[in-house]
Each structure stands twice: as C-alpha cells, then as structure tokens.
C-alpha cells in the first residue's frame, strides 16, 4: 500500500492503494467515480476507456503505479458546469443507449476521435470506435450521433 | 388541506423514500391498480406475483404534487429494452399529462406491481392494459375532484395535458391544484372510467428518448455494479470451473494474509447455491487479486466428462437415424444438417449484487430481470421470509435472458449474512461470468424434404429431426413451414448430461429460426422458386393460426405464425429492400428470412458482399415488423436495429466450447462480440401500422437476422452455411 497523487478531471486526488491497482478500480472504488465501467479487465471491450493527457486509453490496463503525471479525464469530466458536450447531447438526442453500460466508454473514444478528426468518415468512425464493444449493438446510432456532433461543432 | 408536499426524490438512490413518501403523503394523488397479469408465464409458473391474489396498492404508480410535477413508477427492470421509458409513457398517455412534467422512478420489488419479470418481450404487453387503466383512473379521479369543486357534471369536464377544463363556465384548474382533493377520493371502480381510443394517442407512437440518457452520458451511478453504501466491503465468489463441482479445501490461510483481504471461507450446503469460496476484501481489486491466488481442491462431479465433441457425436447418433417422412421412391430428396453452437450471454455488466444483512433482514440491490426469483432464491436458501428480503432493482447492464436466474443474489446474501451490519458488494470477474453462465443450448436439425418434377414448384414432404442439448424450445408441426406441408414430421430430442442451459434472447427461435429459414431457402431453390414469393405462397395455404389461449403468447409457446399478419410484413420488407430489383454481380446478393416470436411478425432482407477471398461484409439489412401498436418509436427502432446486429454478430462470430466439463472461452478476445467495424452499413426498421396492442420488441427481430444473411451469402456465392459460426466457414469463391 502506498499513497499516489493523481489529477482527475482537473482535480488533484490522493489515494492509498497497491501499486498494481488498475486506474479503473482507483476511479471506481477509491474515488467513487463509477462512470468508468469494468467490462473485461484485459483491454478488449473499451467500457473502461478514459483519457490520459487527452488520449483514449483503457483504464483497466493502466496500474496506478505506472500512471505517473498523466492527467486523467473520465466520463464525469466531459460536461462542463452541467452543460453537455456536443457528443453527449447527440447521444441523448439520437437516443443511442440501450442498456447504457458501455456508452461512457463509447463517448470517451468518440470524444478523442472528434478531437483528432473533427469531420470523420464512416470508415474513420469504425476504425476509432472498434475497440468499444456494445453488446446491445447500438452501432447504427453511434455512427449517426458522431456525425451529428461533428456537424454541430 | 395539506397543500405542500416534499419534492420528489431526485437521485436514483432515493427510490425507497418515494414509496415511503407515497405511503405517508396525504396531499398528493396516489393511485394504482391490481389486475390479473397473464404474462410473463415463466414467472407465474414459478409462483411469482403474476397469478393474482395480492391486494391493490393505491400508491403504486402515480404521484402528482401541487406544483404539477408528476412522478411515475416503472414497474419492470430496465436492461436496455426501453421499459423504464415505455411503461410510464403508457400511464402518462391515459393520465393526459405532458411528458416534460414526468419524472420516472424504477420500482422496487413490490407485489403491488404484479409481475415485475422482464422476460419474453413481456414487460410492455403484460403491462399495457394495466398501466392504461392506472392512468385513466387517475384522470377520472382528477375530473371528479374538479366537477365537485365547480358543481358541474363530470361529463362536461375534459382534460388537456395536465389541465382540467369546463367549457361552459370557462373554469380551469391544473392537476397539481386538484391533486389533494383527488387523492381523498375512492379509487374508481371498473366501468366508471374509460380508456382513450388509440386513435387519439398523443404520446404513444412518438419518439421519446430514454429517461436515463442524461445520467448514462455523464457517468452517473445507475447500475448494480455502481452501488456503494457506507462501510461497504467487496467480495468475489470462486466456483468450480465444472458445473456442480464442490469445494473440498482451499489455501484459505494464505489468502487471508493477502493485502486487503478480510476473510475467506468455503460456502457449501446452502440450498440453491453452487459450492464455492467467498473472499471478502476492502476493494474489488483486492477481491480479484486474491481470487487469482486462491487454490481450491474441487470435487468436480459427474459433469467433468462433458465435452462439445461428445455432444456432437450424441447428436449425430440420433440425427442420422432419420425416420421416414413419406418420400416416394421416384421423388428427389433434399437433405441437410444444420448445427448451431452453445452461446454465452456476455452481458457488458458482469454479474454482481449488493446486500446488507441486519437485524434478521436482508436489503439487496439487484441488477436482475426477475427480482422475485432472486428474492425466492434468498428466502429458500437462507430460510428467510419474503417480507424480510427487500429487493431494490437497479438499472441492468444487459439482460438477454442472463439475469432471469439470480444466483449472484444468493451468493452475496449468504456472504452478507456472515457480516451482519456490513454491506457487501459481490462482483464476478469477466472470466467467471463466462464460466458460470446458463448457456444458449447447442442444436442440430436433420432436415429431409422431397419433391417431384411432375409437381413443379412444390415441396411434397418435409421432416425435421431436431436435437438440442437442453433448455427451452422444442420444435412442433404447428410451426412454419411444417404447418403448411401436409404430413410434415417433426421430432425433438435432448442429449443427457447435466450442463447449465437457460434463456438467451428469443429462446429457441434464436437458433432454430436460422436453421429452419435457411432450409426453407434450400427448399425454394430446390423447386426453382424465388425465396420471397415461395414464402408468400406457403403462407397463402397456411391454416388459420391456432388461437393462443387466454394470456398465452403467439410464437414459440402459443399460436402459430398468423399468415394474415406475416404476408404484409414480407411484402413491406420486399418493397423497402428492393427485393429482386437489382441484378447482382457474383459475390453480392440478397437473402430473406421471417419469424414469429413473442407475437410479433418480422421479415428481414439482408444484402451482402463476399469477396473472392471469402471476406463477408453486410451492406444492408432491412426489417419489416408488425409488433402491434408502437409505444415508443425511438426505442422500437433501436430494439429492431440492435436485435438484427446482435443476431448477426452471434451467428457470425460466437461459439462456446466445452471440454472436460469446462467452458473454454473466458473473455472477449476469444468470444469476439460484434464490433462496429463489422456492423452492417445500413440497418433499417419499418413498422406496419397495426391495430393490435403492443407485442413487445426486445427479442422478435433477432431470430431472422442470421438466416437472412446466410441466405444472402448463398445468393452471392452459392455457398450454403449449415454450421455456425459463419467465421469458421470457408466463403471463398472463384
């Protein structure tokens, strides 16, 4: 057990955990930020996607001991002052979620995509989003919502 | 008069106080109904609330505060099928309130709601009339209150979106202003209020986004796995990798010394509980880490000899012993064997549950499709009374039939009982979720058909020797197309050996529709008919569908495919997909399949490209659906699109394999759920404008998806897919 400092959504946090604890479980159990979801634990499903210094990463694959100074952004940190981002709004308007469990991770990947490619093609969307599984298969609406958010920007 | 009520609770975690307020409030309108609840039969048969007998709960569904805010209860679990939005919409329609004034709460397990099972696409059809009545009763009580205050006849009062008006006097009042008076009135008797004519619906049939969307996109706690209670500890429960195996001993002393571990102990001898080792810790990661270091000596039991290979051999032994189906010597014979594998549910949210045991009472937070079944497991296993087991229903991160069984409830309750006063959250590892499933059975269809060139265009004899490992769903001659080929023969058998099987989205139909609709395609081609026209012709000769009994549902467990509904559905699909309009080059093609599951008629036309190297791409899928009245168009479309892709993904990529009684697949790297990059480019859902009550849409569009694609692959390449998954088949052509 050791004390680690990290910055989550712009706020400095301190946690006492084992060095091998994945960021996923630091967020969920230590910091009570449960929007980042456990899906597979092996980096295959994308439900645990967060941004480390703006890049989409699997938080189940990043131990707290190796996080270093990387700034963490989670699904809880996308909306600013209660105002949804264009993507979050598009997700609501297009009524994308079914069960909703994977959608936080989907949004983190989509947010990183639009930051890199403001007007992605279907192919670019598929490439950027193929790390995020949706068991309910809401893929048709995910594509639609990303296009809509890209247009809204 | 008590004019001011506390505001409705804002946070999901405050659901309990909703009921408390409801029970205590004297100033709000609190009404409810209790009616006999025909579906879901599964729960009724299991002794749930569906059979009637519970007293009405007037506080169950509706609460209106003087400021005009309306709180509505969603009685059945939300697992992605849209019940938490659709069910309150039905109340709001009849109550005649603006949807913007409504806040929805998920109901706890409570007999006042009748059956709360979310299975068999049954939440909407099972609740439809009941919720309309609840809404209409509320509206009637508000009208009575207005008429009494104004001294005018009730018949002269009308409502409009939360307001009551009396035209002659110009009097007008909001529901909020009348709620206190209305709440003091008796609940209207049957016959003293009327339901709307469906033609006048304002809300039902429109597109209403899910009520939890804003919480989902901001990561707000909603799901079972998100629950956190003060002082909570975490747990994992390690079961034998072979179903039914027992824990004999384990390195418990070693595990107890690991970081964050509070206790580790064997749980055995509890009725309904699979033997295993409980590990209780300070965090989920501690529990997972400790589970990885746990070494258990198992008594694996009889199931350790089971394997997929042995299932295959047993099926062939039965299947190849085909009985005569009445084919004459000079006829041509068409024979084919279709094989589909075991499947896991693989809900994105792994199984989990939270429980607090205190003063002889168990309080639970369950992501479940069938809260009453979880409660029964706990009461039976731990010798408790139902009144001492409170079940809060959380949002469910995917159901697909997995969470009809509730073993996680009993596991966590048994652990919590040993930690009196401390809440325990149990979370399964993904690997455990794969290894401890109630799998979709594997199945085999040995089809035989006969035709004769002297009777062109017709199949004259048909037989299906159907074998499955077990689980729900037999074949019968009442099913299409066996019901339209005179003398058709169907035999159903199961393979012995204890292996856990269960309900998987569209039970039975999810595999059998693929086999049957693929073979119907073979039949059409064998007799030189267009596959769409051939289905229409077969249906035109169909006997009237046997009436489903009271409360029974058409499809697998009820009446046969109704030709009068299915024919327009096929025609609509053909029109929307442009069936037969395009002359496709080799490597491209269209395929059609139809199904009748849970009272809904669905036709799907798929359009595919298969490269010469054998790479499949699904270009377009078009569904036409008759699911009765559409409650929420947005959700209905989402369900149909998702079901199509889910059915395709399972058939294309997924297979569970058993060896030495152990399931081999343990995570998404080897059980590759469909990804967006393989999802069809265009996915369309078209609905028939139907006069019927809603039939439910969580499942019906799944079964015909895979056969439509496989039939399109045949059209494109001449290759017939008779074994799933598709990815293991060679699609190369030259």
Features:
heterodimer, A: 153 residues, alpha+beta, three-stranded antiparallel beta sheet, two-stranded antiparallel sheet, 6 helices, 5 strands, B: 734 residues, Aldehyde Oxidoreductase, domain 4, seven-stranded mixed beta sheet, four-stranded mixed beta sheet, disordered N terminus
Give structural notes.
By secondary structure, chain A is an alpha+beta fold. In chain A, 37% of the residues lie in helices and 16% in strands. A three-stranded antiparallel β-sheet of chain A has the order 4-3-5, covered by helices on one side. Chain A has a two-stranded antiparallel ribbon with strand order 1-2. In chain A, a hairpin with a 2-residue loop joins strand 3 and strand 4 (55-58). The mean pLDDT of chain A is 97. With 734 residues, chain B is of the alpha+beta class. Chain B has three domains: 15-212, Aldehyde oxidase/xanthine dehydrogenase, molybdopterin binding domain (Aldehyde Oxidoreductase, domain 4), CATH 3.30.365.10; 229-301 and 351-427, Aldehyde Oxidoreductase, domain 4; 443-728, Aldehyde oxidase/xanthine dehydrogenase, molybdopterin binding domain (Aldehyde Oxidoreductase, domain 4). Helices cover 28% and strands 21% of the residues of chain B. Chain B is built from 17 helices and 26 strands. Chains A and B meet through helix 1, helix 3, helix 4, helix 5 and helix 6 of A and helix 6, helix 8 and helix 16 of B.
Mean pLDDT of chain B: 89
Into how many domains do the coordinates of chain B divide? 3
Number of helices of chain A: 6
Structural class of chain A: alpha+beta
Helical/strand content category of chain B: alpha+beta
Care to count the β-strands of chain A?
5
Q: Any idea what the CATH architecture of the largest domain in chain B is?
A: 2-Layer Sandwich
Average pLDDT over all residues of chain A? 97
The N- and C-terminal alpha carbons of chain A lie at a distance of 45 Å
Content of β-strand of chain A? 15-25%
| Tally of helical runs of chain B | 17
H/E element order of chain A: EEHEEHEHHHH
The parts of chain A where pLDDT drops under 50 for at least 5 residues are: none
Q: Stretches of chain B where pLDDT falls below 50 for ≥5 residues?
A: 1-58
